[in-house]
Amino acid sequence: MQDSAHFMSAFLPGHEVREVQNKLEAFRLFAYVDQKLKFPADRPSLPEMVRLAEALPPFQRIFALEGVAHFYTSTAATETPMIHLLADPELPDNAMVPLHSGMGTTLASAALARLGDSPSPADLRKALEDFFELCHDNSREGWYINSIEAMGLAVRTLYPHLRMQVSEEMGEIDEAAQPLFWHGVGRALYFVPMNFITFGGSHERALRAAFEEAPTLEDRHNTVAGLAWALTLVNIQHPIILETFLHMCRGTGLSAALSNGVVSALMVWRHMVPEGQEILAPYLSSSTKVASPALWNDVVAMPAAHAFAEIFPALTRPYEIGQPTIANLFEYQDMRVSQA
Q: What are phi and psi of 106, to 5 degrees?
């Protein structure tokens, strides 16, 4: 795929080439983190792996941390019963988003793999209940929903024909989990093979799938928000890619969902990379040079400025039971502000 991206660079606009490279880098860091960080043969502890990942540049760090959780969970699950995996106080708070996402993706993929292609309703129910329990037992307090959301990503990526069955079953087990599932489906739509290489209308295909696959308006809001979240975070160093996507989305009637996905991704970046705030500057300014300033201001700049002033501080306070955390950004809510 890297060779293909290099070949296509002669034919595609520069921002499309950049987007392909960003996707490949994010995937490589997730899937091959052991090679990137050169883990020794005797596997290091999870805190040691996290320290290695945190030494990387910011963009590489966030996807490497997700890969660390994926790698560690995959191997730990085969050795001893897992419990309190991410509750270790040695693990830094700003690593919680990628660590819970990586762990959740691994647990979800393992649960689905054991089921096969045509599970019975009873087997699916049991697998999902076990998945919920593992996520609960191994999440840090306040972060459980971060790991649950990954089931949507795993289903849409690996077993898309099961998405309605899994959605309905998750809703019966825990009504609050169903919106998380569809947010995960939206994130997956950005990475599925038919949308991975950004030519031939990949943005349009992903958005159309988000509309067509989500059965209700609430599910559609979460799916579109998840898609916008993934696109924003993967390309956060290149605002022109988001601008191009938003311009394509004009007229869909889902600007609130798009805005939620974008702004949530920006807040997650700030939480994960406290020292990397200069990257956020174009997203917080209504004077950013874009082709559609009014659209940028309405969907990105105004909601982001409001969120960082009014929402972000409450999500990053020392945790108390019942208090929302950054993990709550894995579900759609309208973040737009009145321009009156």
A: -70, -45
36 vs 33, 46, 48, 56, CA distance in Å?
A: 5, 16, 14, 10
Neighbours of 292 (CB within 10 A): 13
Sign of the torsion angle spanned by Cα atoms 302, 303, 306, 312: negative
pLDDT digits over 111-164, tens only? 999 998 899 999 999 999 999 999 999 999 999 999 999 999 999 999 999 999
**Whole-structure pTM over 0.90, yes or no?**
yes
Query: Rounded to whole angstroms, how far apart are CA atoms 168 and 189?
Result: 19
CA distances from 86 to 71, 75, 83, 303 (A): 14, 15, 9, 31
Closest among 326, 257, 332, 333 to 100, alpha carbons compared: 326
Average pLDDT taken over every residue of the chain: 91
Among all chains, which residue has been given the structure tokens 């490279």? Answer: 21
Residue pair 46/68 in contact by the 8 Å Cβ criterion:
yes
Nearest Cα residue to 176 out of 319, 334, 330: 330
- Summarize the confidence of residues 199-217 as an average pLDDT: 91
pLDDT band for position 221 (50/70/90)?
A: very high
Q: How far is CA 116 from CA 124, 158, 268, in A?
A: 10, 11, 34
